[in-house]
Specification:
468 residues; mainly alpha; Growth Hormone, Chain: A; globular; Sugar_transport-like; transmembrane helix; MFS transporter; MFS; transmembrane
């Protein structure tokens, strides 16, 4: 792929040229400690964006609506759907262990291959399982169990590398460009989603061998793209975690500017450092409660459309494409705004809007007006709002975590949010089954209240470089 087609160079290059290389913190943390050029940083950013394109295709085929529809076609129970939603969150509990291992290596790139490589190889087993099912060697129930085992194993392996990967990316992207760069990167990923989801949905629905075999077809394509994304990481500047953890400053910036915690003694263990970082603890409280509140209801929207409304997979993928399109169109704007006014004000204001979105599902049915007007509008609203939430949550996390022991900070945040998200899914699934709580409509109303309350700790989080 021609990197110029991504149109990142004209947006990123002028800003990179205005930032001293030393302020990226890369010159002291590279694997070989070489001097960093602006061209090398630019190449790393392009490689990271191309990585996002290929990884998005892989993610489309192994998560979300396509995997959910695959389980529906197999006749999976609601318990299986609950496990499918909760597994990716529960396995975040292994991220602190992954951070511990990664900080004892000398290469972020190699550690990424060791964790994400097996994570993606495992999906080949499911592909062969689908082939076996088409030949009558595997029944549907066995295929459901195999799918859940692979989801668990794949996410466990990937979870060990997640914090290290995020720390690697945080070191490469200059702090002054985070909003704009991640806005562009996420926007391109959304464009990939916009194009790929309906194509994959059509392939699954119209495959002459049936939808199960159709999913096997898109799955093997997704696995190929998953390995192409790992290949893109070869072109990113490598970082030595051991050297990174000896780093306590960035050029002429002071500790407050780069988000270093206000602690009396920097010679602490990672967990002792976190316990003395009150600002990060406030962020952790917000992030955990927010994830819990969102997952009370969010995982059940697709199930509501596919199950309760009995919509065809092509309708649902169309709505997903509209959501991805809205995400694409607004992501760059949110990125520029975040660089200008900060991430926290956006999270508070858009968070209030997102809190009320579950209530909008209460009047949705399967009438023609709902199918052609209200459901498309609702997904467009979701796409624009979540573009802001996802981008700013990511940027704020990068801003409150210091360079030293950075991956441990990210791992702790992921572990807490993963556990709280899984708890939210579990409680949401239980509440949805009790008619005295109003079923799904009652659950959506409860989620709205919890989302609003979860925003309170965010008011007290200080954003690095903003002073308040």
């Amino acid at each position: 792929m021609d990197f110029a087609q991504l149109e990142i160079a004209p947006k990123i290059a002028p800003d990179i040229n205005q930032i001293p290389v030393s302020e990226t913190a890369l010159s002291t943390t590279l694997k070989s400690s070489q001097t960093v050029s602006k061209d090398a940083i630019r190449t790393s950013l392009w490689a990271s964006t191309t990585d996002a394109i290929f990884a998005t295709v892989f993610s489309i085929t192994t998560t979300g609506i396509l995997l959910s529809n695959f389980l529906i076609e197999l006749g999976a129970s609601p318990v299986a759907f609950g496990m499918l939603s909760s597994i990716p969150m529960l396995v975040n509990l292994v991220q602190p262990l992954g951070a511990y291992f990664s900080e004892r290596t000398t290469s972020r790139f190699h550690y990424s291959l060791w964790t994400y490589g097996p994570s993606r190889l495992l999906w080949l087993i499911l592909f062969f399982g689908i082939v076996g099912a088409s030949w009558g060697f595997v029944n549907n129930q066995q295929l459901i169990i195999l799918t859940l085992v692979i989801v668990l194993s794949s996410h466990l392996s990937g979870g060990l590398g997640s914090a290290s990967w995020l720390s690697w990316l945080a070191m490469i992207v200059p702090r002054q460009l985070r909003g704009r760069y991640f806005g562009i990167r996420n926007s391109i990923a959304s464009l990939t989603n916009l194009i790929s989801v309906p194509l994959a949905g059509l392939a699954v629905s119209n495959w002459h061998g049936g939808t199960i075999q159709g999913y096997g077809l898109v799955l093997i394509v997704g696995i190929l793209f998953g390995f192409l994304s790992l290949g893109c990481q070869y072109f990113k500047l490598d970082v030595n975690p051991i050297v990174q953890n000896t780093y306590v400053g960035v050029g002429n910036l002071n500790r407050k500017d780069i988000g270093m915690p206000d602690v009396k003694n920097l010679n602490l263990t990672p967990f002792e450092q976190i316990l003395q970082d009150s600002n990060f603890l406030r962020f952790l409280l917000y992030f955990s409660f927010w994830t819990f509140a969102v997952n009370l209801s969010a995982p059940f929207f697709n199930l509501y459309m596919l199950g309760t409304l009995n919509l065809d997979i092509s309708w649902v993928t169309l709505y997903s494409s509209l959501q991805a399109g809205a995400n694409l169109l607004t992501m760059i704007l949110w990125g520029k705004l975040a660089d200008k006014i900060g991430n926290r004000p956006i999270l508070i204001s858009i968070g209030i809007l997102v809190a009320f979105i579950p209530l909008l599902w209460l009047g949705i049915g399967n009438h023609q007006l709902d199918l052609w007007l209200w459901l498309p509008l609702l997904h467009i609203l979701l796409g624009g709002a979540w573009a802001a939430i996802d981008l700013c949550n990511n940027n704020l996390q990068l801003g409150v975590a210091p360079i030293k022991n950075q991956s441990t900070y990210f791992a702790i945040a992921a572990a807490f949010s993963g556990a709280s998200g899984a708890l939210g899914i579990t409680i949401g699934g239980l509440l949805a089954q009790f008619t005295q709580f109003g079923g799904l409509p009652g659950l959506f109303a409860i989620s709205c209240v919890f989302r609003l309350f979860s925003l309170l700790p965010l008011i007290f989080v200080k954003e690095a470089g903003r002073g308040k």
